[in-house]
Amino acid sequence: MINTVTVHSHAWYGDMELTLDFPSGWEVEILGPKDAPALSDIQIEQAFAEPIGTQRISELAKGRRSAAIVVDDLSRPTPAADVIPFLLRELSSAGVPKSEIRFVVGGGSHRPLTDEEVAKKVGADIAAEYEVTSHDFMSGDLRGYGSLQNGMPIYINSVVADAEFKVCLGGIYPHGSVGFGGGAKLIVPGIAGFATMFYFHTFSPSRGHAVIERTGSSPDHRDFAEEVAAVIGLDVIANAVLNSRREICGLFVGDYVQAHRTAAHFALETYGTEIPMQSRKETDLVVLNCYPLDSDPIQTGKALWAAGYFEKAYKLLLNPASDGICYHGLFEQIDYTRYMKQRAEKVPPELPAPQLGNRDQLHVWSEHFLVDDFYKKHSNGILFRNLEQLIQLFAEELPDNAKVSVFPSAGIQVLAHQD
Protein backbone atom coordinates (compact mmCIF):
# COMPACT_ATOMS: atom_id res chain seq x y z
CA MET A 1 0.00 0.00 0.00
CA ILE A 2 1.39 3.40 -1.03
CA ASN A 3 1.44 5.87 1.85
CA THR A 4 4.07 8.32 0.64
CA VAL A 5 3.13 10.69 -2.17
CA THR A 6 5.44 13.13 -3.94
CA VAL A 7 3.97 16.19 -5.65
CA HIS A 8 5.50 19.18 -7.39
CA SER A 9 5.56 22.49 -5.54
CA HIS A 10 6.97 26.03 -5.47
CA ALA A 11 6.42 27.12 -9.09
CA TRP A 12 9.01 29.76 -10.07
CA TYR A 13 10.73 29.24 -6.70
CA GLY A 14 12.61 26.00 -7.29
CA ASP A 15 9.85 23.83 -8.78
CA MET A 16 10.81 21.25 -6.18
CA GLU A 17 9.20 18.05 -4.97
CA LEU A 18 7.11 17.95 -1.81
CA THR A 19 6.73 14.64 0.01
CA LEU A 20 3.56 13.76 1.92
CA ASP A 21 3.93 10.95 4.48
CA PHE A 22 0.60 9.47 5.61
CA PRO A 23 -0.02 6.86 8.35
CA SER A 24 0.78 3.31 7.30
CA GLY A 25 -2.83 2.08 7.51
CA TRP A 26 -4.27 4.76 5.23
CA GLU A 27 -5.37 4.06 1.67
CA VAL A 28 -3.99 6.78 -0.59
CA GLU A 29 -4.96 7.34 -4.24
CA ILE A 30 -3.63 9.91 -6.67
CA LEU A 31 -6.25 11.55 -8.87
CA GLY A 32 -4.06 13.16 -11.49
CA PRO A 33 -4.93 14.78 -14.82
CA LYS A 34 -4.73 12.93 -18.12
CA ASP A 35 -1.57 14.98 -18.80
CA ALA A 36 0.64 15.12 -21.89
CA PRO A 37 4.38 14.99 -22.70
CA ALA A 38 6.51 18.11 -23.11
CA LEU A 39 6.92 19.57 -26.59
CA SER A 40 10.27 19.41 -28.34
CA ASP A 41 11.86 22.49 -29.93
CA ILE A 42 10.84 21.10 -33.31
CA GLN A 43 7.21 20.93 -32.18
CA ILE A 44 7.35 24.51 -30.89
CA GLU A 45 8.76 25.62 -34.24
CA GLN A 46 5.93 23.75 -35.96
CA ALA A 47 3.33 25.66 -33.91
CA PHE A 48 4.73 28.93 -35.29
CA ALA A 49 4.97 27.49 -38.80
CA GLU A 50 1.33 26.37 -38.79
CA PRO A 51 -0.69 29.14 -37.06
CA ILE A 52 -4.43 28.82 -36.51
CA GLY A 53 -6.61 31.28 -38.37
CA THR A 54 -3.84 33.68 -39.43
CA GLN A 55 -0.79 33.89 -41.62
CA ARG A 56 2.56 33.05 -40.11
CA ILE A 57 3.91 35.83 -37.89
CA SER A 58 6.88 36.33 -40.20
CA GLU A 59 4.34 37.28 -42.88
CA LEU A 60 1.82 39.12 -40.69
CA ALA A 61 4.45 41.44 -39.23
CA LYS A 62 6.08 42.45 -42.52
CA GLY A 63 6.24 46.21 -42.85
CA ARG A 64 5.56 46.79 -39.13
CA ARG A 65 8.09 49.12 -37.60
CA SER A 66 7.53 48.16 -33.95
CA ALA A 67 6.13 45.33 -31.86
CA ALA A 68 4.86 44.81 -28.32
CA ILE A 69 4.81 41.38 -26.71
CA VAL A 70 2.50 41.06 -23.70
CA VAL A 71 3.39 38.26 -21.27
CA ASP A 72 1.63 37.11 -18.10
CA ASP A 73 3.23 37.58 -14.68
CA LEU A 74 4.47 35.07 -12.10
CA SER A 75 0.96 34.46 -10.79
CA ARG A 76 0.69 32.34 -13.94
CA PRO A 77 3.10 29.44 -14.46
CA THR A 78 3.69 30.05 -18.19
CA PRO A 79 7.41 29.54 -19.02
CA ALA A 80 7.42 32.38 -21.53
CA ALA A 81 11.22 32.28 -21.78
CA ASP A 82 10.94 28.91 -23.56
CA VAL A 83 8.78 30.42 -26.33
CA ILE A 84 10.18 33.94 -26.75
CA PRO A 85 13.26 32.99 -28.85
CA PHE A 86 10.99 31.34 -31.44
CA LEU A 87 8.71 34.37 -31.49
CA LEU A 88 11.62 36.79 -31.88
CA ARG A 89 12.92 34.80 -34.86
CA GLU A 90 9.53 35.27 -36.52
CA LEU A 91 9.62 39.02 -35.92
CA SER A 92 13.20 39.22 -37.15
CA SER A 93 12.24 37.38 -40.34
CA ALA A 94 9.47 39.92 -40.83
CA GLY A 95 11.98 42.75 -40.60
CA VAL A 96 10.77 44.29 -37.33
CA PRO A 97 13.77 46.17 -35.86
CA LYS A 98 15.10 44.57 -32.69
CA SER A 99 15.39 48.01 -31.09
CA GLU A 100 11.63 48.54 -31.56
CA ILE A 101 10.48 45.31 -29.87
CA ARG A 102 9.23 45.79 -26.31
CA PHE A 103 7.84 43.46 -23.68
CA VAL A 104 5.02 44.35 -21.28
CA VAL A 105 4.08 42.21 -18.28
CA GLY A 106 0.29 42.17 -18.46
CA GLY A 107 -0.49 41.54 -14.82
CA GLY A 108 -3.77 43.47 -14.74
CA SER A 109 -3.95 45.05 -11.31
CA HIS A 110 -1.29 42.76 -9.83
CA ARG A 111 1.97 44.20 -8.54
CA PRO A 112 4.92 45.01 -10.82
CA LEU A 113 7.66 42.42 -11.19
CA THR A 114 11.15 42.96 -9.82
CA ASP A 115 14.14 42.75 -12.16
CA GLU A 116 14.88 39.26 -10.86
CA GLU A 117 11.30 38.17 -11.54
CA VAL A 118 11.35 39.66 -15.03
CA ALA A 119 14.43 37.55 -15.76
CA LYS A 120 12.57 34.45 -14.63
CA LYS A 121 9.60 35.19 -16.85
CA VAL A 122 11.25 36.26 -20.10
CA GLY A 123 14.77 34.88 -19.60
CA ALA A 124 17.85 36.67 -18.31
CA ASP A 125 19.28 37.27 -21.79
CA ILE A 126 16.02 38.78 -23.08
CA ALA A 127 15.67 40.95 -19.96
CA ALA A 128 19.19 42.28 -20.57
CA GLU A 129 18.68 43.04 -24.27
CA TYR A 130 15.09 44.30 -24.46
CA GLU A 131 12.94 46.83 -22.67
CA VAL A 132 10.57 45.02 -20.28
CA THR A 133 8.02 46.98 -18.26
CA SER A 134 5.20 45.96 -15.93
CA HIS A 135 1.76 47.35 -16.70
CA ASP A 136 0.52 49.94 -14.20
CA PHE A 137 -3.27 49.95 -14.24
CA MET A 138 -3.39 53.21 -12.28
CA SER A 139 -0.95 54.99 -14.55
CA GLY A 140 -1.96 58.08 -16.45
CA ASP A 141 0.12 56.84 -19.38
CA LEU A 142 -2.76 55.06 -21.13
CA ARG A 143 -4.38 55.37 -24.52
CA GLY A 144 -8.15 55.85 -24.82
CA TYR A 145 -10.19 54.05 -27.49
CA GLY A 146 -13.68 55.26 -26.65
CA SER A 147 -16.18 52.73 -25.31
CA LEU A 148 -17.82 49.45 -26.23
CA GLN A 149 -21.55 49.45 -26.97
CA ASN A 150 -22.24 48.25 -23.42
CA GLY A 151 -20.58 51.41 -22.08
CA MET A 152 -17.26 49.91 -21.00
CA PRO A 153 -14.54 52.55 -21.44
CA ILE A 154 -11.36 51.36 -23.13
CA TYR A 155 -8.01 52.50 -21.73
CA ILE A 156 -4.92 50.51 -22.71
CA ASN A 157 -1.21 50.48 -21.85
CA SER A 158 0.50 53.02 -24.09
CA VAL A 159 3.46 50.81 -25.03
CA VAL A 160 1.10 48.21 -26.47
CA ALA A 161 -1.28 50.75 -27.96
CA ASP A 162 1.53 52.53 -29.82
CA ALA A 163 3.14 49.35 -31.19
CA GLU A 164 2.36 48.53 -34.81
CA PHE A 165 2.32 44.77 -34.13
CA LYS A 166 0.73 43.33 -31.00
CA VAL A 167 1.30 39.83 -29.59
CA CYS A 168 -0.04 38.18 -26.43
CA LEU A 169 2.04 35.32 -25.03
CA GLY A 170 0.32 33.57 -22.15
CA GLY A 171 -1.08 30.32 -20.81
CA ILE A 172 -4.38 28.44 -20.84
CA TYR A 173 -5.61 27.74 -17.31
CA PRO A 174 -9.14 27.15 -15.95
CA HIS A 175 -10.70 30.43 -14.83
CA GLY A 176 -14.13 31.18 -13.41
CA SER A 177 -14.67 34.49 -15.18
CA VAL A 178 -13.47 33.69 -18.70
CA GLY A 179 -13.64 29.88 -18.77
CA PHE A 180 -9.97 29.53 -19.59
CA GLY A 181 -7.29 32.20 -19.34
CA GLY A 182 -5.15 33.21 -22.29
CA GLY A 183 -6.24 34.80 -25.54
CA ALA A 184 -7.60 38.31 -25.16
CA LYS A 185 -7.48 38.14 -21.36
CA LEU A 186 -3.96 39.57 -21.53
CA ILE A 187 -5.56 42.68 -23.06
CA VAL A 188 -8.46 42.96 -20.61
CA PRO A 189 -7.71 42.96 -17.78
CA GLY A 190 -4.01 42.30 -18.54
CA ILE A 191 -2.99 45.74 -19.86
CA ALA A 192 -6.19 47.72 -19.20
CA GLY A 193 -6.56 50.85 -17.11
CA PHE A 194 -8.50 51.11 -13.86
CA ALA A 195 -11.74 52.36 -15.45
CA THR A 196 -11.78 49.54 -18.00
CA MET A 197 -10.97 46.92 -15.40
CA PHE A 198 -13.53 48.20 -12.91
CA TYR A 199 -16.31 48.19 -15.51
CA PHE A 200 -15.22 44.76 -16.79
CA HIS A 201 -15.27 43.14 -13.35
CA THR A 202 -18.41 44.91 -12.13
CA PHE A 203 -20.86 44.81 -15.02
CA SER A 204 -19.93 41.71 -17.02
CA PRO A 205 -21.24 38.19 -16.28
CA SER A 206 -18.77 35.33 -15.90
CA ARG A 207 -18.43 32.49 -18.39
CA GLY A 208 -17.86 29.81 -15.75
CA HIS A 209 -14.97 27.61 -14.66
CA ALA A 210 -13.45 25.70 -17.61
CA VAL A 211 -16.36 26.63 -19.91
CA ILE A 212 -15.02 27.15 -23.42
CA GLU A 213 -18.00 28.60 -25.30
CA ARG A 214 -20.66 30.93 -23.91
CA THR A 215 -23.86 29.04 -23.14
CA GLY A 216 -26.33 31.94 -22.74
CA SER A 217 -27.33 34.75 -25.06
CA SER A 218 -25.79 37.62 -23.06
CA PRO A 219 -22.16 38.63 -23.74
CA ASP A 220 -19.77 37.84 -20.88
CA HIS A 221 -16.23 38.55 -19.70
CA ARG A 222 -14.60 36.60 -22.52
CA ASP A 223 -16.74 38.33 -25.17
CA PHE A 224 -15.91 41.80 -23.93
CA ALA A 225 -12.19 41.06 -23.67
CA GLU A 226 -12.25 39.91 -27.29
CA GLU A 227 -14.22 42.97 -28.36
CA VAL A 228 -11.52 45.21 -26.90
CA ALA A 229 -8.81 43.09 -28.57
CA ALA A 230 -10.53 43.76 -31.89
CA VAL A 231 -10.74 47.50 -31.21
CA ILE A 232 -7.05 47.88 -30.38
CA GLY A 233 -5.89 45.53 -33.15
CA LEU A 234 -4.41 42.51 -31.37
CA ASP A 235 -2.59 40.72 -34.19
CA VAL A 236 -1.77 37.28 -32.83
CA ILE A 237 -1.48 35.12 -29.72
CA ALA A 238 0.83 32.33 -28.61
CA ASN A 239 -0.85 30.33 -25.86
CA ALA A 240 0.74 27.47 -23.95
CA VAL A 241 -0.90 24.52 -22.25
CA LEU A 242 1.23 23.01 -19.49
CA ASN A 243 1.49 19.52 -18.10
CA SER A 244 1.61 18.63 -14.41
CA ARG A 245 5.38 19.25 -14.33
CA ARG A 246 4.99 22.83 -15.65
CA GLU A 247 6.33 21.91 -19.06
CA ILE A 248 4.79 23.15 -22.30
CA CYS A 249 2.80 20.25 -23.74
CA GLY A 250 0.77 22.29 -26.24
CA LEU A 251 1.43 25.59 -28.03
CA PHE A 252 -1.22 27.35 -30.08
CA VAL A 253 -0.29 30.31 -32.26
CA GLY A 254 -2.66 32.41 -34.35
CA ASP A 255 -5.96 34.27 -34.17
CA TYR A 256 -6.92 35.34 -30.65
CA VAL A 257 -10.30 33.60 -30.89
CA GLN A 258 -9.64 30.56 -33.05
CA ALA A 259 -6.26 29.65 -31.56
CA HIS A 260 -7.57 30.27 -28.05
CA ARG A 261 -10.54 27.95 -28.49
CA THR A 262 -8.36 25.22 -29.99
CA ALA A 263 -5.98 25.58 -27.06
CA ALA A 264 -8.83 25.49 -24.55
CA HIS A 265 -10.19 22.24 -25.98
CA PHE A 266 -6.72 20.71 -25.73
CA ALA A 267 -6.40 22.01 -22.16
CA LEU A 268 -9.78 20.59 -21.20
CA GLU A 269 -8.60 17.18 -22.36
CA THR A 270 -5.10 17.47 -20.86
CA TYR A 271 -6.23 18.77 -17.47
CA GLY A 272 -9.21 16.38 -17.35
CA THR A 273 -9.39 14.31 -14.16
CA GLU A 274 -11.68 11.41 -13.34
CA ILE A 275 -13.12 11.23 -9.83
CA PRO A 276 -14.49 7.73 -9.21
CA MET A 277 -17.89 7.58 -7.54
CA GLN A 278 -16.51 5.37 -4.78
CA SER A 279 -13.86 7.97 -4.00
CA ARG A 280 -16.51 10.68 -3.82
CA LYS A 281 -18.42 8.71 -1.21
CA GLU A 282 -15.62 7.18 0.85
CA THR A 283 -12.72 9.68 0.88
CA ASP A 284 -11.95 11.01 4.36
CA LEU A 285 -9.33 13.56 3.32
CA VAL A 286 -8.91 15.28 -0.05
CA VAL A 287 -5.54 16.91 -0.65
CA LEU A 288 -5.53 19.73 -3.21
CA ASN A 289 -2.08 20.78 -4.33
CA CYS A 290 -2.26 24.29 -5.82
CA TYR A 291 0.73 23.73 -8.13
CA PRO A 292 1.48 25.10 -10.66
CA LEU A 293 -0.59 28.10 -9.52
CA ASP A 294 1.10 28.17 -6.14
CA SER A 295 3.33 31.25 -6.17
CA ASP A 296 0.61 33.88 -5.69
CA PRO A 297 -1.50 33.61 -2.50
CA ILE A 298 -4.59 34.89 -4.35
CA GLN A 299 -4.63 31.86 -6.64
CA THR A 300 -5.39 29.46 -3.77
CA GLY A 301 -9.10 29.37 -4.53
CA LYS A 302 -8.50 28.00 -8.04
CA ALA A 303 -7.61 24.62 -6.58
CA LEU A 304 -10.90 24.29 -4.72
CA TRP A 305 -13.04 23.14 -7.64
CA ALA A 306 -12.76 19.43 -6.71
CA ALA A 307 -13.67 19.78 -3.04
CA GLY A 308 -17.42 19.83 -3.67
CA TYR A 309 -17.39 16.37 -5.25
CA PHE A 310 -16.54 14.64 -1.97
CA GLU A 311 -19.37 13.90 0.43
CA LYS A 312 -17.60 13.66 3.77
CA ALA A 313 -13.95 14.62 3.27
CA TYR A 314 -11.80 17.09 5.15
CA LYS A 315 -10.06 19.53 2.78
CA LEU A 316 -6.30 20.12 2.84
CA LEU A 317 -4.82 22.69 0.43
CA LEU A 318 -1.10 22.92 -0.25
CA ASN A 319 0.08 26.36 -1.33
CA PRO A 320 3.52 27.63 -0.31
CA ALA A 321 2.44 31.06 -1.68
CA SER A 322 6.10 31.76 -2.33
CA ASP A 323 5.41 35.30 -3.51
CA GLY A 324 4.00 36.14 -0.08
CA ILE A 325 2.26 39.30 -1.30
CA CYS A 326 -1.51 39.18 -1.47
CA TYR A 327 -2.09 42.29 -3.59
CA HIS A 328 -4.87 42.80 -6.12
CA GLY A 329 -4.97 46.54 -6.66
CA LEU A 330 -8.41 46.68 -8.27
CA PHE A 331 -10.07 45.28 -5.17
CA GLU A 332 -7.83 47.11 -2.71
CA GLN A 333 -8.36 50.26 -4.81
CA ILE A 334 -4.91 51.41 -3.87
CA ASP A 335 -1.64 51.61 -5.77
CA TYR A 336 1.13 49.17 -4.93
CA THR A 337 3.49 51.72 -3.37
CA ARG A 338 0.89 52.87 -0.83
CA TYR A 339 -0.16 49.27 -0.22
CA MET A 340 3.39 48.30 0.71
CA LYS A 341 3.77 51.38 2.91
CA GLN A 342 0.59 50.53 4.81
CA ARG A 343 1.64 46.92 5.15
CA ALA A 344 5.04 47.93 6.58
CA GLU A 345 3.28 49.98 9.24
CA LYS A 346 1.15 47.04 10.43
CA VAL A 347 2.12 44.76 13.29
CA PRO A 348 1.61 41.26 11.85
CA PRO A 349 -0.69 39.07 13.98
CA GLU A 350 0.52 35.77 15.34
CA LEU A 351 -0.67 32.47 13.92
CA PRO A 352 -3.24 30.80 16.21
CA ALA A 353 -2.31 27.50 17.84
CA PRO A 354 -2.72 24.67 15.32
CA GLN A 355 -5.93 22.68 15.63
CA LEU A 356 -8.28 21.05 13.18
CA GLY A 357 -11.58 22.57 12.22
CA ASN A 358 -14.59 20.80 10.78
CA ARG A 359 -15.12 19.22 7.36
CA ASP A 360 -16.56 22.42 5.93
CA GLN A 361 -13.43 24.41 6.65
CA LEU A 362 -10.30 24.77 4.57
CA HIS A 363 -7.08 23.53 6.13
CA VAL A 364 -4.28 25.29 4.28
CA TRP A 365 -0.60 24.60 4.57
CA SER A 366 1.49 27.58 3.44
CA GLU A 367 4.99 28.77 4.20
CA HIS A 368 4.50 32.39 3.12
CA PHE A 369 0.79 33.30 3.14
CA LEU A 370 0.65 36.13 5.69
CA VAL A 371 -1.71 35.52 8.58
CA ASP A 372 -3.84 38.65 8.25
CA ASP A 373 -4.07 38.30 4.46
CA PHE A 374 -5.05 34.66 4.77
CA TYR A 375 -7.95 35.23 7.15
CA LYS A 376 -9.10 38.21 5.13
CA LYS A 377 -9.31 36.02 2.01
CA HIS A 378 -10.40 32.77 3.69
CA SER A 379 -12.41 33.68 6.75
CA ASN A 380 -13.59 30.08 7.13
CA GLY A 381 -10.11 28.62 6.71
CA ILE A 382 -7.32 27.56 9.06
CA LEU A 383 -3.69 28.31 8.26
CA PHE A 384 -0.84 25.94 9.14
CA ARG A 385 2.92 26.28 8.73
CA ASN A 386 4.06 22.75 9.66
CA LEU A 387 2.85 20.16 7.16
CA GLU A 388 3.98 17.12 9.13
CA GLN A 389 2.20 18.44 12.21
CA LEU A 390 -0.96 19.03 10.20
CA ILE A 391 -0.95 15.47 8.81
CA GLN A 392 -0.45 14.20 12.36
CA LEU A 393 -3.52 16.14 13.51
CA PHE A 394 -5.52 14.44 10.76
CA ALA A 395 -4.08 11.08 11.84
CA GLU A 396 -5.42 11.65 15.34
CA GLU A 397 -8.88 12.58 14.01
CA LEU A 398 -9.44 10.14 11.14
CA PRO A 399 -9.83 6.33 11.31
CA ASP A 400 -6.81 4.01 11.09
CA ASN A 401 -7.90 2.95 7.60
CA ALA A 402 -8.70 6.44 6.33
CA LYS A 403 -8.99 7.01 2.59
CA VAL A 404 -7.09 9.91 1.03
CA SER A 405 -7.46 11.38 -2.47
CA VAL A 406 -4.59 13.54 -3.72
CA PHE A 407 -4.90 15.99 -6.62
CA PRO A 408 -1.25 16.66 -7.57
CA SER A 409 -1.92 19.75 -9.71
CA ALA A 410 -5.36 20.85 -8.55
CA GLY A 411 -4.73 24.44 -9.64
CA ILE A 412 -5.17 23.41 -13.29
CA GLN A 413 -7.09 20.13 -13.09
CA VAL A 414 -10.72 19.96 -14.22
CA LEU A 415 -13.38 17.27 -14.09
CA ALA A 416 -13.05 14.96 -17.07
CA HIS A 417 -16.03 14.75 -19.40
CA GLN A 418 -17.91 11.50 -19.08
CA ASP A 419 -18.70 9.67 -22.36
Sequence-ordered SSE layout with sheet pairings:
Elements: E1 4-9, E2 16-21, E3 27-30, H1 41-49, H2 57-60, E4 67-71, H3 84-94, E5 101-105, H4 115-122, H5 124-129, E6 131-134, E7 142-147, E8 153-157, H6 158-162, E9 165-171, E10 174-175, E11 179-180, H7 194-203, H8 221-232, E12 236-242, E13 248-254, H9 258-270, E14 272-273, H10 277-282, E15 285-289, E16 314-318, H11 329-332, H12 336-345, E17 362-365, H13 371-377, E18 381-384, H14 387-397, E19 403-407, E20 414-415
What's a quick, concise take on this entry?
This protein is of the alpha/beta class. The protein contains 14 helices and 20 strands. Strand 4, helix 3 and strand 5 form a beta-alpha-beta unit.
Describe this structure in words.
With 419 residues, this protein is an alpha/beta fold. It has two domains: 4-33 and 275-415, 2-enoyl-CoA Hydratase, Chain A, domain 1 (Alpha-Beta Complex), CATH 3.90.226; 41-270, LarA, N-terminal domain (Rossmann fold, 3-Layer(aba) Sandwich), CATH 3.40.50.11440. The chain is built from 14 helices and 20 strands. The strands form six sheets. The protein has a six-stranded parallel β-sheet, with helices on both faces. It has a six-stranded mixed β-sheet with strand order 6-5-4-9-12-13, sandwiched between helices. Strands 1-2 form a two-stranded antiparallel sheet.
